[in-house]
Amino acid sequence: MPDVRNAPRALVTIPTLVEKVGQQPISPDPGLVPHFERVSAHGGGIGAKVPGIIRDLSVNGVFIAAQPFPLLSRVSFTFPLTGYGQVDAIGWVFWRRSQDVTVRYTGREAAFLPAGIGVLFESVPIDARIAIAQIVASAVRAAP
After folding, report:
1. pTM above 0.70, yes or no
2. What domains lie within the chain, and their CATH numbers?
3. Whole-number average pLDDT of the chain
């Protein structure tokens, strides 16, 4: 099956520790209050930490194989990036796979998909995003 996601990605194996963090409160201008809505992060379990493995990486986010946090959890994690150093990231759990699953495709080998979370980056330093973009571009060029 072709990859139809918007952002190209690199397959990686990078250990990380994911921590569930709270959402920062904001006070919009009083004139905006009647017109302002904000998505609220899942509030339970703030401070919970789980070890994980980053399995794919794009400039927009990562998939982390780990015990999954609930959807819309706000998470913090760090990871080493070759040629860059340590990346400090904050993101939102936009999708999750609650358990390991093996998918069988017609005419192809079965694919093992681990439990984990798809995290959309909220905050990553711009120079780290550039380094990620370079890693992803190299992976795309090397792909068959």
Report:
1. yes
2. 10-24+43-142 (2.40.10.220)
3. 91
